[in-house]
Automatic annotation (TrEMBL):
This is Benzoate/H(+) symporter BenE family transporter. Keywords: Membrane, Transmembrane, Transmembrane helix. It comes from Nocardiopsis lambiniae. Residues 394-415 are annotated as: Disordered. The chain crosses the membrane at residues 12-37, 49-69, 76-94, 100-119, 126-144, 150-167, 174-192, 252-278, 298-319, 324-342, 354-387. Residues 403-415 have a biased composition (Basic and acidic residues). It holds the Pfam family BenE.
Length: 415
């Protein structure tokens, strides 16, 4: 019996299982409606919409668990939420078969980016403070959401925050789980947890043969590729590197693209590295031992598989949770990551302004040319870095006193 308990604790530590559950909870509830809207815009019926959810969740489950086990790191894969938003408004005049063809084309471009190593080469040139500022900007809205959610349901959110602080004081590894359970209990007692629309229903894969129309490839496939790479994969890499995980990016990108191509005929429009849900699984809340945090992503894969198989049922269940509860648990789960990102971004005085510009531009939520703020924040920060830091000669004082780089700082160019 003792051996069995040790085995369970080894493969299913409670913090890792909790982090995986919260990541799936936040990921699905925050954007499932956008996926449904995109499927409807493509002309999918109810069975095909369930197939989209099944294909997406199976893809995420396989890549999350497989890549995390392969690299022993919390590699977090999600569907492309900006991609779904793009599809929801950009499929006018495009048939379902043509949309599937565009998904295959976009996935092929992503696979090519991974196989050639081009994307990783670009990421390797991004200074650490800029990557940290990018991540902090992406996550800021969720940290703020912890408190703005009090306007919608003060009792639920305040109870969650209070329980989190108390448990955090005495047993930090269970603080997030305790906050989630308290939120569900309080919501149920207040009558804001409506389960009347939940019905058991198993999703069935529906095959749609892709049709390749050059108009759809250009108007849907190319923009889908761009927003997935710039708005999702880019901050996703920043999350991993901010927590010290040097996972080889090119194979990961290639696998997400290849998996998408295989599952695209069933409705998988785009898989990519996650940022927000990734941060839930890469920090200390997922496991005290950073070498064991990959288990959080393995369990997230298990939960994603459950969501996919019971797609419509689970979606209805998750939608039944109050939005204030979802915002609060996301904010609570990301507090440590946001703090660590800001510390990394602003600790280097010479790069502070560039990192701050990256953070502010990313947090602004600006969208230009259909590309989200993560990309433009990095562009603004890189421009600031190039002008104010990269080519700036050191003063005599800096030359005399800064002979040794502090850990975590980017190397300073001497040319």
């Amino acid at each position: 019996m003792g051996t069995l308990l040790r085995l369970v604790r080894s493969v299913a530590p409670l913090p890792a299982v909790t982090a995986g559950l919260i990541a799936v909870l936040v990921g699905v509830t925050s954007s499932a409606a956008i996926v449904f809207t995109a499927a409807e815009a493509a002309g999918a019926d109810a069975g095909q919409i369930a197939s989209w959810m099944l294909a997406l969740c199976v893809g995420m489950a396989v890549t999350c668990a497989g890549l995390s086990l392969r690299y022993r790191a919390p590699v977090v894969i999600a569907w492309s939420t900006p991609g779904a938003a793009l599809l929801a408004v950009g499929l006018d005049g495009v048939t379902l078969e043509q949309a599937i063809g565009a998904f295959v084309f976009s996935a092929a471009l992503i696979t090519l980016s991974g196989v050639t190593g081009l994307f990783e080469k670009v990421m390797d040139r991004i200074p650490v403070p800029l990557a940290a500022g990018l991540l902090a900007g992406v996550l800021l809205q969720f940290g703020v959401g912890l408190f703005t959610g009090m306007e919608g349901d003060f009792v639920v959110v305040a109870a969650m925050f209070g329980v989190y602080l108390l448990v955090r004081r005495w047993s930090p590894r269970y603080a997030v789980l305790a906050a989630l359970l308290s939120g569900v209990i309080v919501a149920a007692l207040r009558g804001s947890l409506d389960l009347s629309g939940v019905r058991p229903q198993v999703a069935v894969p529906v095959l749609v043969v892709p049709e390749f129309s050059w108009q759809a490839l250009v108007s849907v496939g190319v923009p889908l590729f761009v927003v997935t790479m710039a708005s999702q994969n880019l901050p996703g890499v920043a999350v991993l590197r901010n927590d010290g995980y040097r996972v080889p990016i090119s194979p990961v990108i290639a696998w997400t693209g290849a998996t998408t191509m295989v599952l695209a005929p069933f409705g998988c429009f785009g898989l990519n590295l996650a940022a927000i849900t990734a941060a839930i699984c890469t920090g200390p809340q997922a496991h005290p031992d950073r070498e064991r945090r990959f288990l959080a992503r393995v369990w997230a894969g298990v939960f994603y598989l459950c969501v996919g198989v019971f797609g419509a049922t689970v979606a209805a269940l998750l939608v039944a949770l109050p939005s204030a509860l979802i915002m609060a648990i996301a904010g609570i789960g990301l507090l440590g990551t946001i703090g660590g990102s800001l510390n990394s971004a602003l600790s280097d005085e010479r790069a502070r302004e560039a990192a701050l510009v990256t953070f502010l531009a990313t947090a602004s939520g600006i969208t230009l040319l259909g590309i989200g703020s993560a990309f433009w924040g990095l562009v603004a920060g890189a421009l600031t870095w190039a002008i104010t830091v990269r080519r700036r000669p050191k003063s005599e004082t800096e030359t005399d006193t800064e002979t040794v780089e502090r850990p975590g700082e980017p190397e300073r160019e001497t040319s």
